[in-house]
Design goal:
Layout (H helix, E strand, L loop, with lengths): L1 E6 L3 E7 L5 E8 L2 H15 L9 E4 L5 H8 L3 E4 L2 H11 L7 H15 L11 H34 L1 H6 L6 H9 L3 H5 L3 H10 L5 H13 L7 H37 L4 H5 L6 H11 L9 H8 L4 E5 L2 E5 L6 H14 L4 H12 L4 H22 L5 H4 L1 H8 L1
Parallel strand pairs: 1-4, 4-5
Antiparallel strand pairs: 1-2, 2-3, 6-7
Helix pairs in contact: 3-4, 5-11, 5-13, 7-9, 7-11, 9-10, 11-13, 13-15, 14-17, 15-17, 16-17
Pfam family, one: DEDD_Tnp_IS110
Protein name: IS110 family transposase
Organism: Streptosporangium algeriense
Length: 405
């Protein structure tokens, strides 16, 4: 039997369908244990006396949460359908553009009935991998939030206090936030003494404190265009709020970093992942979290590359054929993989040679880096499949032969 589950925050519209496409049941169920019990009863009633022999396939537009975990625990085969795929499939069933929650449940049920072989089942990741995913995603989200708030702080300072931008290189740094919190206006900053500036630098464990303090003081006391006193006071209030937010974000990012390293260090695949060039505890944890650790999820290195979004897509029509970069991908995963590729340039001679080869062929920096990331994903897949550590000679045999020659 096939079940389409159109989920919302507080309810689920479901439809149960048989192999011929005939609707067996439909209902709106509440979120939670009661709704799950009613779904099991609905499926059991539709299956009748053959309930123990019937395989149930479920299509739903998410791959996480207690509801999905309960479906997997019940023995159902769950397919996480991309909403874009569901929308395109809906267009095949009618041209009126009509849409409803019950209609979406029908579309999802029909998708798993006719195209289950082309859909990806929800991965059976281990609890260790799930724990790594929770902390790494939150850690990365806080880093993104810190970047956004730092940009807001930069824009505010540029509008009324450009001297601060000349004095401070890193707006996220603890000494910068301490001084801006103490002196948020140009007038107050100009009155900061070398002792006050040096104290903030020492607390942040800066080197060459005396020279840096003198440089900062000179920049803060230099002539710059600004705003009137009333407007500057208004901006100062906003800056103090942003400074407070950034201070808290710095503290929580540091705390979560320890949690990421702790959870990742307990995973059995940590040693293999850490052996890869360019991957440390944080990047390695992100890669593990987004790929998951279900051994049957990726049938080949190509499948892992396709999921990563590093492999190109081919568009061919008649005599025209083009290989293009993928723009639909897991943003968290591609960010980690490209960062790994850039870092690997300094840590692996084979990676560096491969990158230089792509540049020689005419690829730009980003394209060459993406191709290197694609190659590194294939190497990681082989290491995980064979449970072996990274070996430079094995990973880049052509480069090793050229060096020997």
């Amino acid at each position: 039997m096939f079940v389409g589950d159109d989920w919302a925050e507080d309810h689920h519209d479901v439809e149960v369908m048989d192999a011929s496409g005939r609707r067996l049941a439909k209902a709106r169920l509440p979120e939670g244990a009661d709704g799950m019990a009613r779904l099991h009863a609905l499926v059991g009633q539709a299956a009748g006396d053959d309930a123990d022999e019937v395989e149930v396939l479920v299509g739903i537009e998410t791959d996480r949460g207690p509801w999905v975990r309960a479906l997997v625990a019940a023995g159902y085969v769950v397919y996480a359908v991309n909403p874009l795929q569901a929308a395109r499939f809906r267009d095949r069933l009618g041209v009126s553009r009509a849409k409803s929650d019950a209609g979406d449940a029908h579309v999802l049920a029909d998708m798993v009935r006719t195209h289950a072989h082309e859909l990806r089942p929800v991965a059976g990741d281990s609890p260790q991998a799930e724990a790594v995913k929770v902390v790494t995603r939150t850690h990365k989200t806080l880093i993104w939030e810190r970047t956004r708030h730092a940009q807001r702080l930069r824009h505010a300072l540029r509008d009324y206090f450009p001297a601060a931008l000349a004095a401070f290189d890193d707006l996220n740094a603890g000494d910068t936030l301490a001084l801006l919190g103490k002196a948020p206006t140009p007038q107050m900053a100009a009155r900061l003494t070398l002792t006050q500036i040096s104290a903030a630098l020492k607390k942040a464990r800066r080197k060459n404190v005396a020279d840096k303090a003198a440089t900062i003081q000179a920049a803060l006391r230099a002539d710059h265009l600004g705003q009137g006193e009333l407007v500057s006071a208004a901006y100062a209030s906003c800056v103090q709020a942003l400074v407070a937010i950034l201070t808290v974000l710095n503290e929580q990012i540091k705390t979560l970093q320890g949690q990421v390293e702790a959870h990742f260090g307990e995973h059995p695949a940590a040693e293999i992942i850490l052996s890869q060039p360019g991957l440390g505890p944080i990047l390695g944890a992100r890669v593990l979290a987004e790929f998951g650790d279900d051994p049957g999820r990726y049938v080949s290195a190509k499948a892992r590359k396709n999921y990563a979004g590093t492999s190109p897509i081919t568009r061919a029509s008649g005599k025209k054929k083009a290989a293009l970069a993928r723009f639909i991908h897991n943003d968290r995963l591609i960010d980690a993989l490209l960062t790994q590729a850039y870092s690997a340039l300094l840590r692996s001679s084979g990676a560096r040679a491969y990158y230089d080869k792509q540049r020689t062929r005419g690829s730009g920096h980003n394209a060459a880096l993406r191709q290197l990331a694609n190659r590194l994903v294939g190497i990681l897949h082989g290491c995980l499949k064979t449970r072996s550590l990274y070996d430079e000679t094995t990973a880049w045999p052509n480069h090793a032969e050229n060096v020997a020659a």
